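Hi R.,

Here's the chain you asked about this morning:
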Amino acid sequence: MPVRVRVYKDINIQIGEIMVNLIAGTALLYFIQLLLPNILKSNGDQAKRADKAVKNLMESLPVFFTVAILSVVMEIDENMSLACYWLVSRVLYALIYVSGIGMKTAAGASSKILQPLRSIVWVASAILLIIMTTNLI
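And here is the predicted structure, written out as tokens:
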């Protein structure tokens, strides 16, 4: 009996499927982050940070979804790897924010809490979205 191997006639089909998986992964991240504040409600500080993290994600989701879908339609292959990096950066952002990694009080202000690592990851995710957007032009 001959072995059947699935071969893609066009590499763009495979890249489009990967981008669709990244879009689905982003939606899954959003749903998980929506649940986190309720899951963590016994730990007040973490629940508050989880709520802020999901609100931050909600701000960038429309841009990501628009750019990702247009990338599939316009067959912009370069955006596939950028979308993957963006998703990883958003997962890292949520983990850093919710867990409180790198939190420290600002000098001279006892109520101001800084998380420089979180800010660096956020800037990286914003830059990735900008690059993805410019690739569409």
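One quick note: The chain has one domain: 11-135.

Cheers,
M.
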